[in-house]
Design a protein that fits this description.
single chain, alpha+beta, eleven-stranded mixed beta sheet, 11 helices
Length: 622
């Protein structure tokens, strides 16, 4: 269906074609909306492929000044005014598109076929740019892995899996349960349930929080039992614990295609409380030396896609924290300038801007602001590379007395132990989480249990007071320290079970103040390792109970200024639920276990087994 409109501020009459069915190589047709200038000229094309409805507004298309999300039609109209055609497409099996939805795995070939179709259209000048947030960033990277003809520029916002096994679906061998909440919430919007009103009505009554409180699940016995296509792919991801060929498919493994990945100018953008800062930094590092590029990296302090919001959770980063505040222009202008340079050849200077822009959290007043959030503050920094040149990767050692410092332990024998009960896991309090409603939310919070955090129990305690959390912290800092980069934790451990998990969480500890009499323990980043994968992702091996093993827990990158008087804290435990599935400690197959055991877990802290965290200490801004 086609119509045309005239915008008084638009030099071009706009032709709009809705629900054009674009054929894929297997005959499936994907519903596509096209916004283009009228006439016989040709124009560069900007493509967005989304599972969230090509006609629906994207919540992230807003500015710091105007919180109202702009519709995709409004975004398209702005591009058309500047001489572009814009194409939105529903991914396979979603909204108006035909075929069966299988999350992520059809987007490489479908994206390639769509770009090839666009290049052949009489109104296309042969130059294609791609854009989109989250899943729509994953679809971009998927097609770029196949290097379609005509692809000329990309702007990936919070997605584009470098390796979904290590970041986005699994992490450290554990399964990210946001995949379950996403599957449930999006199954409710699927064509399959829309076609069966009774199933849709029944699924609307499912209590997802209750299901999370009563694991394990199985196929046919899960909150997704009424949506079997979604249940099938969820369990396929969950039960593929080993890094095998499943995880090396196009769409979830850009690392495997870096050599053949499209060589086009690209931006990789993410944020510290987003599930994809590791994806963005891995892709930046993996592609910048292989491609003519340019390749750019932007990292903010936001939640997933909230680039025009100054806070994440209970912490505010100040008015400069928005992307608008850093650039003195809104996101649409930033994105359009990128495409103007690389699709239209306009010399606007973007190719001469710094390769890396990142927001370093911290430096604020520490007061409670009028919205009731901690004023943590922060500032933007630019660099030519990641991690920042001059960064010193510095060991901080965990000690038996709970301290954390640079001196190597001298103890001949030292350890700390705790009991990890899978039926009472450490509750998730913020972090790099998206799509977790109604079970979990991302962001920065004081690390104290409470009724808004799933799994918390009365009397609500500080996580530091739980017997299954080991706390290590520095003395109050004598000077400011900038920690900017990836975080790794090396532990020497043992357990009386054949398998267990170890978690690590980096925290900025505020001293007590009038606004926060008990201080404020602000989570920065965290990581997890399923110990069966300590030596190999491809060849897991169970532990011999009582054996001592060296393991490494990788946390997502972060950037924080620890102010003088604050403490750097590292929490070690064995669970972070429901962010990650909990380990039953039995060694049973993942996603298919039936029993649980309590594990007595040990962390060694002596001179021969010096457990430590490596902190990337960057040069100060001054």
């Amino acid at each position: 269906m086609a119509d045309s409109t005239i915008d008084a501020g638009n030099p071009h009459e706009t032709v709009v074609e809705r629900d054009v069915l674009v054929p894929m190589r297997d005959g499936v047709r994907l519903a596509t909306d096209i916004y283009r200038p009228a006439g016989d000229e040709t124009f560069p094309v900007i493509l967005e492929r989304t599972p969230y409805g090509k006609g629906e507004s994207s919540r992230s298309e807003r500015t710091a000044k105007d919180a109202r999300p702009r519709s995709r039609a409004e975004i398209a109209a702005d591009f058309v005014r500047h001489g572009y055609a814009v194409v939105y497409q529903d991914t396979r099996g979603r909204y108006g598109s035909e075929g069966k939805f299988v999350k992520y795995l059809s987007d490489g070939t479908d994206g390639y076929d769509t770009v090839a179709w666009l290049v052949a259209q009489p109104w296309c000048n042969g130059r294609i740019g791609t854009m989109g947030l989250s899943y729509a960033a994953h679809t971009q990277s998927a097609l770029a892995c196949l290097d379609p003809p005509g692809l000329a520029a990309m702007f990936l916002d919070s997605g584009g899996f470098s390796n979904a096994y290590r970041s986005g679906i699994r992490q450290g061998g554990a399964f990210e349960l946001k995949q379950a909440t996403w599957a449930f919430n999006n199954a409710l919007l699927s064509p399959e349930l829309a076609a069966t009103p009774l199933k849709f009505k029944a699924m609307r009554t499912v209590d997802l929080r209750s299901w999370f409180a009563h694991m394990p699940w199985s196929r046919g016995h899960s909150p997704l039992a009424l949506a079997p296509a979604y249940e099938d792919y969820l369990f396929e991801q969950w039960q593929h614990g080993t890094f095998d060929s499943y995880w090396k498919q196009v769409g979830i493994y850009a690392e495997g295609a870096y050599d053949t990945y499209a060589d086009v100018p690209m931006v990789h953008m993410s944020s510290w409380y987003d599930p994809y800062p590791r994806t963005a930094t891995d892709n930046f590092l993996g592609l910048k030396h292989r491609k003519q590029g340019p390749v750019r990296l932007i990292l903010g302090p936001w939640l997933h896609g909230d680039r025009s919001v100054t806070h994440a959770g209970d912490v505010d980063f100040g008015p400069a924290a928005t992307l608008d505040g850093q650039l003195a222009e809104d996101f649409q202008t930033l994105r359009r300038r990128w495409f103007d340079r690389w699709l239209r050849g306009i010399d606007n200077g973007v190719d001469r801007e710094p390769a890396v822009r990142l927001f370093v959290m911290g430096g604020g007043s520490g007061r409670r602001n009028p919205d009731g959030r901690l004023d943590h503050g922060g500032a933007w920094r630019t660099s030519g590379d990641w991690p920042l040149p001059g960064t010193r990767f510095t060991n901080y050692y965990l000690r038996a007395d709970g301290s954390l410092d640079r001196a190597v332990p001298s103890d001949a024998e030292a350890m700390r132990q705790f009991d990890y009960d899978p039926r009472n896991p450490v509750p998730t309090i913020g972090g790099a989480i998206s799509s977790g409603d109604p079970v979990m939310a991302g962001g920065a919070f004081d690390q104290v249990e409470g009724p808004r955090f799933f799994g918390s129990r009365t009397p609500y305690r500080k996580l530091a007071d739980r017997p299954d959390v080991l706390v290590f912290q520095t003395a109050p800092l004598a000077e400011d320290i900038d920690v900017i980069g990836p975080i790794t934790v090396t532990l020497w451990i043992s357990s009386d079970c054949p398998d267990t998990d170890f978690t690590a969480k980096l925290i900025d500890v505020y001293p007590a103040s009038a606004d926060y009499p008990d201080g404020f323990a602000m989570n920065l980043t965290d990581g997890i390792l399923r110990v069966r994968y300590r030596e190999s992702w491809e060849r897991p091996s169970l532990m011999t109970p009582g054996g001592v093993y060296r393991i490494e827990v990788a946390a997502f990158p972060t950037a924080n200024l620890f102010k003088r008087g604050h403490r750097i804290r590292l929490d070690i435990s064995s669970s972070n639920f429901p962010h990650f599935d909990f380990n039953p400690n039995t060694g049973e197959s993942e996603g298919a276990w039936r029993e649980t055991r309590v594990a007595r877990n040990t962390v060694y802290l002596d001179r021969d087994r010096p457990s430590h965290v490596v902190l990337p200490i960057a040069p100060s801004r001054s």
